[in-house]
Amino acid sequence: MTSSPGILEQAVLDVVPGREPDFERAFGEARSLISASPGFLGLDLLRCLEKPSRYLLLVRWETLEAHTAGFRQGPSYARWSELLHPFYSPFPVVEHYSSALSTSASVV
């Protein structure tokens, strides 16, 4: 059995229209809070082309508990919430995934 590649957290973030620049600035500050959390492996914040006030947040964690217990119950989460939660409408649903199948493009 091989070791797990970690957990992928995903959240679709619908930001109040017109507040995208402020959200991106706040996320720039919030990024340092999450990246300092034990078990954090990396993140991507993607902006939707069809709906510019929608973002996709993908965060890689070593374990589910690194996110749910470590970060969300840790000392930095209150500041994270203060920075980002006012921008969401509606509040996002967060889900966690583990790899079931992976394929990469072949290099010839």
TrEMBL record:
Gene Ontology MF term list: monooxygenase activity
Keywords: Monooxygenase, Oxidoreductase
Coiled-coil intervals, chain numbering: none
Stretches assigned to the ABM domain: 7-96
Protein name: Heme-degrading monooxygenase HmoA
Species the sequence originates in: Lentzea fradiae
